[in-house]
Design a protein that fits this description.
The radius of gyration is 23 Å and the shape is globular. It contains 13 helices and 18 strands. Among the domains are: 96 residues, Metallo-beta-lactamase, Chain A (4-Layer Sandwich), CATH 3.60.15.10; 178 residues, Rossmann fold, CATH 3.40.50.10890. Helices cover 34% and strands 19% of the residues. The model has no long low-confidence stretch (mean pLDDT 93). The strands form four sheets. A seven-stranded mixed beta sheet has the order 4-5-6-7-8-17-18, with helices on one face. Strands 11-10-12-9-13-16 form a six-stranded parallel beta sheet, with helices on both faces. It is α/β, with parallel strands linked by helices. The two termini are 22 Å apart.
Length: 420
């Protein structure tokens, strides 16, 4: 029953179940930008790997004395949702378009993608629904909107008119920390670590956050603000994602383009090294006075766990969080001040210095979202709020209604909304 799937960007919470949809029979078209397609492939293949590893670990845990499985337990295992073949089938369904191009899908539906400023290739979708008996009705789907002033990525495009707007509300109740202050705080941490020959471990998200950090580090090193402190990117997925970023300089903002024009690659500098190989990763354990960027960003798995084990009990080491940590994750426990944590089944005392840098978010905050909504020259008939914790979405909806004098609606799961 689904003809088209419109994909705003390549974060897992937006694309992670596409292969499952394909596995269940979806054969429609998946609409996105080219960078979104390329990044989605990386994300989904990594998901296959993680699901398979999780399944195998669970199977090992329920073995009994004779090596067989308890009656029935094998059927309670959470099997992978999909495999590599499902991912490849999904990738074949993509149709990619550029920003600003109006596309008539059929006689009644037209769309255009605009830059959402969230991650590379992220999109706002404008839809026009045509009806012979009345004027076209326009619906705008924001996707995830970026924070203006982000490195590399352009600011979100402003949309000037719509009848209906569906907008995200992730940070609809708060303001981000000042970006310049955040960058200076990072520089201070690195300087202190270098002066004491200590390590800095940065749990890193593979897409956007890694590339933004590399951009900032490139500036530090190129300007001579930091010297004699090697930086290692120890994340195969982040390394692959960075290669995708390098392929699409036309999507960069003006500052990043100017760096390239001067011959300065924003993702490379003299003391930077990729450690894609497992053995290279293991060798980092014996080094001092280095920066290690590794996934996963919330410390739920990946190589960062090994680096935490090697550094978390060292009072001179620094652990720097640059992204939101979901409740229940190891990253959240560390940020919340846990005195001991468990990594790979072993208890560790947290003695390292822990920092949370709040200015690197790829989502706009309350002020940014309001600014984007106020850009509509003609007030929409209805603003529909999604993508946020319930209390945040409801708070933001009430705020918009009172300040902008426009009707708002917060849908429940599976609830339908009629467009008049």
């Amino acid at each position: 029953d689904i003809d088209y799937l419109f994909l705003t960007h390549a974060h897992f919470d937006h694309c992670g179940r596409i292969p499952l949809l394909v596995k269940k029979g979806f054969r429609g078209k998946i609409i996105s930008t080219q960078p979104t397609r390329d990044l989605t492939r990386i994300i989904l293949l990594d998901s296959v790997k993680l699901q398979r590893e999780g399944y195998e670990r669970s199977a090992q845990k329920i073995k009994i004395k004779n090596g067989s499985h308890p009656e029935g337990d094998i059927f309670t295992l959470k099997k992978p949702m999909y495999d590599e073949q499902d991912v490849h089938k999904a990738m074949e369904l993509f149709q990619v378009y550029s920003y600003g191009r109006s596309v008539d899908l059929n006689n009644c539906l037209e769309f255009r993608m605009r830059d959402a400023g969230h991650i590379l290739g992220s999109s706002i979708f404008e839809f026009w629904v045509h009806d012979k008996n009345q004027r076209p009705r326009k619906l705008v789907f924001s996707g995830d909107l970026g924070q203006p002033g982000q490195r590399i990525i352009r600011d979100p495009d402003m949309i000037r008119d719509a009848d209906y707007v569906i907008v995200e509300s992730t940070y609809g109740d708060r303001l981000h920390k000042n970006k310049d202050e955040t960058v200076l705080e990072l520089l201070k941490i690195l300087t202190e670590a270098r002066d004491t020959s200590s390590n800095v471990v940065i749990p890193t998200f593979a897409i956007e956050r890694t590339q933004e950090l590399l951009y900032e580090l490139n500036l530090f090193y190129e300007k001579g603000l930091i010297e004699n402190m090697p930086v290692y990117l120890d994340s195969p997925m982040a390394i692959e994602a960075t290669e995708v970023f390098k392929q699409y300089p036309t999507f960069y903002d003006e500052d990043a383009k100017r760096l390239l024009e001067k011959g300065d690659n924003p993702f490379e500098f003299n003391e930077f090294k990729n450690t894609g190989d497992v053995e290279d990763s293991k060798r980092l354990a014996g080094k001092k006075g280095i920066v290690i960027m590794a996934g996963s960003g919330m410390c739920t798995g990946g190589r960062v766990l090994h680096h935490l084990k090697n550094n978390i009990e060292n009072e001179n080491s620094h652990i720097v969080f640059v992204g939101f940590q979901v409740k229940g994750t190891l990253g959240r426990d560390i940020v919340d001040g846990a005195s001991t944590v468990e990594i790979h089944g072993k208890k560790f005392t947290v003695k390292s210095q822990v920092h949370t840098l709040g200015g690197f978010s790829a989502h706009g905050d309350k002020r940014d979202l309001e600014y984007w909504l106020r850009g509509y020259g003609r007030s929409p008939k209805l603003i529909i709020l999604v993508h946020g914790e319930e209390s945040v979405v409801n708070s933001f909806a009430n705020n918009i209604k009172q300040e902008m004098h426009v009707d708002t609606f917060v849908p429940k799961l599976n609830e339908k909304v009629e467009i008049e």
